[in-house]
Amino acid sequence: MLFHETGEQPHMNFETIKFAVDGNVATITMNRPERLNACSLGMADDMLRALDHLGDARALVITGEGRAFCSGADLTASGERPVTGAQGSYMALTEKYNPLMMKLARLDVPVICAVNGPAAGIGCSIALAGDFVIAGASAYFLQAFVNIGLVPDGGSSWMLPRLIGKARATEMMMLGEKIGPEKACEWGMIYKAVADESLTGETQALATRLANGPTVSYATIRKNILTALENSYAQALQAEAEGQRLAGGTDDAREGSMAFVEKRKPAFQGR
Q: Is the model's pTM score more than 0.70?
């Protein structure tokens, strides 16, 4: 599945992803369908590079090619130096996967993850890093680590209890069972569950809406949510005040106020 396949392609070469910018929407498509888009070290590198070249994009879509979103980490990808042993996994996380997750968390544009098929292991973490997660009927979310005697990574042990509570997070991480899109939506883990054939259209509509919204406001909301999850109530209040000062000085805020007074729809420019 490639969203905005006809979009303008940045002049960059990627081995494991497709990257397109169409108007104000950037799309990263994980592109190792023969491996169900398992995230190799090279893919993590490619995604990190793509995130540095969003240009004027005002929304980002992440999805997977073929019948999977991402089936987990691949530390033995062909053509790459195999990662072995406990220390090798530690280095892969600290040098590749964790920087990717932090960069996604700190982007200044809203992120939509369109989940087609399995989102397992690090793929589950990447999916849940989206501000909006839309899952097709064939999608599922899986914390598979315990099934091979490992522990969740990619920030999932931080993210899941905050999304769905301790009991459900413990269920996912200790039982290692698939969570389908309807249950994920019922739990509050994702934004929406849709039919497979509706996934592209629903994603495109939401991406277009976000890409035409008040971009500075969105960036500040993202930052403030992260601040609130990490810090105290008092710190969240202060972050909101500072964010309001920033957003309130933008052209979009002025346009929003004028549109409200004039009883019309605002035309935001992302600045």
A: yes
127 exposure class (CB count in 10 Å sphere: 0-12, 13-18, 19+): buried
Q: Which long-range contacts (CB under 8 A, 24 or more apart) does 1-6 make?
A: 1/29, 1/63, 1/64, 1/65, 1/66, 1/114, 1/116, 1/199, 1/200, 2/27, 2/29, 2/63, 2/65, 3/27, 3/29, 3/61, 3/63, 3/114, 3/200, 3/203, 3/204, 3/207, 4/61, 4/204
The highest-level CATH class for domain 215-262 is mainly alpha
> Rounded distance, CA 255 to CA 97, Å?
39
Query: What confidence score (pLDDT) does residue 79 get?
Result: 62
Terminal-to-terminal C-alpha distance of the chain:
31
CA angle (191 as vertex; 106, 267 as ends), nearest 5: 70
- Block mean pLDDT (10 aa), the chain, length 271: 46 88 96 96 96 96 98 77 71 91 96 98 96 98 91 93 96 96 98 98 98 95 92 77 79 79 84 86
Range list for CATH 3.90.226.10 in the chain: 17-211
Which class for 158: exposed (0-12), middle (13-18), buried (19 or more C-beta within 10 A)?
middle
How many CB atoms sit inside 10 A of residue 216's CB? 21
pLDDT of residue 259: 82
CATH H superfamily, domain 17-211: 2-enoyl-CoA Hydratase; Chain A, domain 1 (3.90.226.10)
- What is the structure's pLDDT at 87? 78
- The pLDDT value recorded for residue 89 is 83
